[in-house]
């Protein structure tokens, strides 16, 4: 059974940092592209960042470029999202997603497996 479990969310002041983790099990993590998406209250889920299955390619939403970094550790079967210079508008539930042999997709429809999400709240 495939599981993606996010952790690392919490409450942080604007300008602060958080590091999210997504631990995968039940799949061969090294051949999975991984993405991070977020959904704020009353808004649709939106793309944040993605990394191809090889790790060679990354993709970021314009709103987080230069502030967020995605990377994957195949040995730990975990994908991370390092978030710096956080803004109140970054407040959302953050989800990780996986796609076998995928690229750094920005479209949520490309991903097969999803985690349950972790809440990130940035206070002003």
Word description of this protein:
The protein is mainly beta. The protein has strands at residues 3-7, 10-13, 18-25, 32-39, 46-51, 58-60, 68-73, 78-83, 92-100, 113-114, 118-123. The strands form two sheets. Strands 2, 4, 5, 6, 9, 10 and 11 form a seven-stranded mixed β-sheet that branches. Strands 1-3-8-7 form a four-stranded antiparallel β-sheet, with no helix packed on it. The mean pLDDT is 97.
pLDDT below 50 for ≥5 consecutive residues: which ranges? none
Helicity level: under 10%
Which whole number gives the mean pLDDT? 97
Largest sheet: 7 strands, mixed
Shape: globular
The secondary structure category is: mainly beta
**First and last CA, distance:** 40 Å
Radius of gyration: 13 Å
Q: What is the number of strand segments? A: 11
Quaternary status: single chain
Give the strand content.
over 45%
Number of helical regions: 0
- Return the string of H and E elements: EEEEEEEEEEE
Features:
51% strand; 124 residues; 4-stranded antiparallel beta sheet
In short:
By secondary structure, this protein is mainly β. The protein is built from no helices and eleven strands.
Topology:
Elements: E1 3-7, E2 10-13, E3 18-25, E4 32-39, E5 46-51, E6 58-60, E7 68-73, E8 78-83, E9 92-100, E10 113-114, E11 118-123
Parallel strand pairs: 2-11
Antiparallel strand pairs: 1-3, 3-8, 4-5, 4-9, 5-6, 7-8, 9-10, 9-11
